[in-house]
């Protein structure tokens, strides 16, 4: 079974656990270094959002589930985050799969995390739960993307 | 996980060289910000950041570097990133930041 589930305490240093899980699963499907790094970044960014904006640095339960599934056109990596932070309405977050254009004149220090997640992952879905939030990410391991 | 940061200044304090060693993520990026902030407040003409020993950087680290970019625009200084690893360069390219930042492959 290619499925790993961990429950974290919502503290910053636990991000290393997530990165380890991503490394293990992405190596099992032979993703290259850059792909592994991108997926690690997307997972890192979701967790950072939960830690900073959900729990405001005070910690809280974060359930993380990662799995590999075989699709018709190859492997897919699935990641699911569930937290107990106040539900956030993300319906107004209009993020396409392309990073918005930027220039030195308009670039701001914050706000890159969510667009990066959408640019890296093939599917990103946020769901407001009754007492928390759920993020579902999917990465399609295409033939040309693997080594 | 630890992040090492070394800062050197030219004799006239106009140029700063910053060497960063380790991953820059949600855990370590506050340290990077703590070291970089005073440089943006001072009288520097140039700030050079060596990223050759940084294998991973998330948006919190990038945010601090964007502040450097803003400093350069405001103070008419130079903010230069040096020797990005392929993994970090890839993220900069994905975020379309590779054409915004002054990036050099010169060893400091």
Strand segment count of chain B: 5
Quaternary status of these chains? heterodimer
CATH class of chain A: Alpha Beta
Structural class of chain A: alpha+beta
List SSEs of chain A in N-to-C order: EHHEEHEE
Percent of residues in helices of chain A = 25-40%
Shape summary of chain A: globular
Strand content of chain B: 25-35%
Strands side by side in the biggest sheet of chain A: 1-2-3-5-4
The count of domains of chain B is 1
Please describe the biggest sheet of chain A, giving its number of strands, its sense, and whether it closes into a barrel: 5 strands, antiparallel
Helix content of chain B: 25-40%
Please outline the helices and strands.
The complex is a heterodimer of chains A (147) and B (108).
Chain A: E1 3-8, H1 15-28, H2 33-54, E2 62-71, E3 74-83, H3 113-120, E4 123-129, E5 132-140
Helix pairs in contact in A: 1-2, 2-3
Chain B: E1 4-9, E2 15-21, H1 29-41, E3 46-53, H2 59-75, E4 78-82, H3 86-94, E5 102-104
Tell me what you see in this structure.
The complex is a heterodimer of chains A (147) and B (108). Chain A has a single domain (3-91, 113-145), classed as Heat Shock Protein 90 (2-Layer Sandwich). By secondary structure, chain A is α+β, with helices and mostly antiparallel strands. Chain A has a five-stranded antiparallel beta sheet, with helices on one face. The relative contact order of chain A is 0.21. Chain A has helices at residues 15-28, 33-54, 113-120; strands spanning 3-8, 62-71, 74-83, 123-129, 132-140. Chain A is 30% helix and 29% strand. The two termini of chain A are 23 Å apart. With 108 residues, chain B is of the alpha/beta class. Chain B has one domain: Transcription Regulator spoIIAA. Chain B contains three helices and five strands; from the N terminus they run ββαβαβαβ. Chain B has a five-stranded mixed beta sheet with strand order 1-2-3-4-5. The interface between A and B is medium-sized, with 33 and 25 residues.
């Amino acid at each position: 079974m290619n499925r790993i589930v961990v429950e974290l305490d919502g503290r910053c240093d636990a991000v290393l656990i997530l990165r380890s899980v991503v490394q293990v699963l992405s190596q099992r499907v032979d993703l290259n270094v850059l792909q592994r790094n991108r997926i690690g970044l997307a997972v890192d960014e979701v967790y950072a959002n939960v830690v900073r904006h959900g729990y405001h640095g005070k910690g809280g339960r974060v359930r993380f589930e990662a799995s590999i599934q075989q699709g018709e056109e190859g492997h897919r990596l699935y990641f699911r985050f569930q937290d107990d932070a106040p539900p956030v309405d993300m319906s107004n977050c209009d993020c396409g799969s392309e990073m918005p254009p930027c220039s030195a004149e308009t670039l701001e220090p914050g706000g890159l995390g969510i667009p990066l997640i959408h640019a890296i992952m093939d599917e990103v879905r946020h769901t407001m739960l009754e007492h928390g939030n759920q993020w579902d990410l999917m990465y399609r391991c295409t033939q040309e993307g693997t080594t | 996980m630890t992040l090492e940061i070394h800062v050197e200044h030219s004799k006239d304090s106009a140029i700063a060289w910053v060497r960063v060693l380790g991953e820059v993520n949600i855990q370590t990026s506050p340290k990077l910000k703590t070291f970089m902030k005073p440089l943006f407040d001072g009288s520097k003409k140039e700030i050079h950041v060596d990223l050759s020993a940084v294998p991973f950087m998330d948006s919190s680290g990038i945010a601090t570097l964007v502040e450097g970019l803003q400093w350069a625009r405001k103070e008419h200084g130079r903010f230069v990133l040096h020797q990005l690893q392929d993994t970090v360069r890839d993220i900069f390219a994905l975020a379309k930041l590779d054409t915004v930042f002054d990036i050099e492959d010169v060893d400091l």
